[in-house]
């Protein structure tokens, strides 16, 4: 299953790994913070679980250690950034910081990014803006996983969209894929030897499968075998075309706006480079930020206090992550044994001692 590990120790371990790849001290620290913060939020699909994938991409030269992201065009409120195949966490962090700077100067900052890499948790970057008292939006395309309604092969990415805004007792944070779940969640179920609980993906016969190991294998193949269903599921009955539409909006904001590569063209062959989209909005554009945030907090509390189904609790998006953050900071982050083994193998290849972090 999994065990709890001290957050600070794991962050230090991840930083050592990135130092050893040749990233600067500062960049390794940014990467380690972003990856392990994801585990603190309880999003085990996109934290250290992803180190093995990043390791493969660094070794293959798909992630360039020495890349310097470049602003291609810019206005006071917008920019297009070329990530030059840098580490997604670094490119995305730079792009969101640029969007925040523009919002500080001009009220709003919108940055579209091409030729980056997998950036992990979309909400991490949206939250960078809400931590500064702003609205933050973050989205990314990915390898092709999502099967458009009635198609029999994937075309769009799992294309997550995150939105964050300051509120009490913690920021509102919606952060989710436009497929039913992210691929990472299927990977976690496969690593834990469990079947997936819902209708998340279809196999080679276009039939819904719950076999996590088979789905992980099929979805890691190039080209993909089967694919993931959009939010709303297969066909039209439960509105699958809406998840498909949301994924298409993310694709437009990311690869089309930045003139990068479509999700459909990634994941096999030589076309490489993920696209992202970031927005920061200063609440002063609309009035007093404190009053606006207070209205949001009051509304969210009204929802939390609605009558609930017997034995159930009503959550607002971000509630589970805020609770997980507190818990993991105190009691450690949860890592499955297969991921610890992968981290140990990476460390051995890089000649890093790691026993002291376990
Ligand atoms: N980089 C990439 O290519 C990529 C691709 C897909 C997903 N992701 C990331 O993977 C992570 C997980 O995505 P996912 O789609 O599996 O997420 P998910 O299905 O677990 O949904 C998470 C969202 O739903 C909210 N939530 C959960 N239960 C709730 C409830 N009962 N009521 C109200 N809100 C509730 C959470 O607070 C969160 O905002 C995200 O951080 C996402 O950004 C990244």
TrEMBL record:
According to the lineage, what is the superkingdom?
Answer: Bacteria
Q: Would the keyword Oxidoreductase be found if you checked this record's keyword annotation? A: yes
- Keyword terms: Oxidoreductase
The family this protein is said to belong to: Belongs to the LDH2/MDH2 oxidoreductase family.
Q: What is this protein called?
A: Ldh family oxidoreductase
Q: Which organism is it from?
A: Sporolactobacillus shoreicorticis
């Amino acid at each position: 299953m999994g065990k709890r590990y001290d957050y600070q120790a794991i962050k230090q371990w991840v930083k050592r790994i990135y130092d050893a790849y040749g990233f600067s001290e500062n960049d390794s620290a940014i990467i380690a913070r972003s990856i392990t913060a994801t585990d603190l939020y309880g999003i085990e699909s996109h934290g250290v679980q992803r180190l093995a994938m990043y390791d493969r991409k660094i070794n293959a030269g798909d992630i360039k250690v020495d890349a310097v992201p470049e602003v291609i065009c810019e206005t006071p409120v917008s920019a297009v950034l070329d990530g030059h195949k840098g580490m997604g966490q670094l490119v995305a962090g730079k792009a969101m910081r640029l969007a925040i700077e523009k919002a500080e100067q001009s009220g709003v900052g919108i940055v579209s990014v091409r030729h980056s890499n997998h950036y992990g948790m979309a909400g991490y970057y949206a939250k960078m803006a809400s931590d500064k008292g702003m609205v933050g939006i973050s989205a990314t395309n990915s390898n092709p996983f999502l099967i458009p309604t009635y198609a029999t092969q994937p075309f769009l990415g799992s294309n997550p969209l995150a939105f964050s805004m300051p509120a009490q007792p913690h920021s509102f944070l919606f952060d989710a894929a436009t497929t039913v779940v992210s691929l990472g969640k299927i990977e976690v179920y496969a690593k834990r030897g469990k079947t997936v609980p819902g209708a998340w993906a279809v196999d080679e016969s276009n039939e819904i499968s719950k076999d996590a190991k088979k789905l992980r294998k099929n979805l890691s193949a190039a080209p993909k075998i089967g694919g993931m269903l959009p939010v709303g599921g297969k066909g039209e009955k439960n509105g699958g075309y809406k998840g498909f539409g949301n994924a298409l909006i993310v694709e437009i904001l990311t690869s089309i706006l930045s003139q990068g590569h479509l999700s459909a063209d990634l994941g096999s062959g030589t076309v490489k480079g993920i696209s992202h989209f970031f927005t920061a909005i200063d609440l002063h554009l609309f009035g007093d930020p404190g009053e606006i945030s207070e209205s949001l907090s009051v509304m969210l509390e009204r929802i939390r206090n609605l009558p609930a189904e017997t034995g159930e609790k009503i959550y607002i998006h971000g509630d589970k992550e805020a609770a997980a953050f507190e818990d993991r900071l105190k009691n450690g982050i949860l890592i499955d044994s297969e991921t610890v083994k992968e981290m140990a193998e990476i460390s051995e290849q890089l000649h890093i001692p790691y026993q002291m972090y376990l």
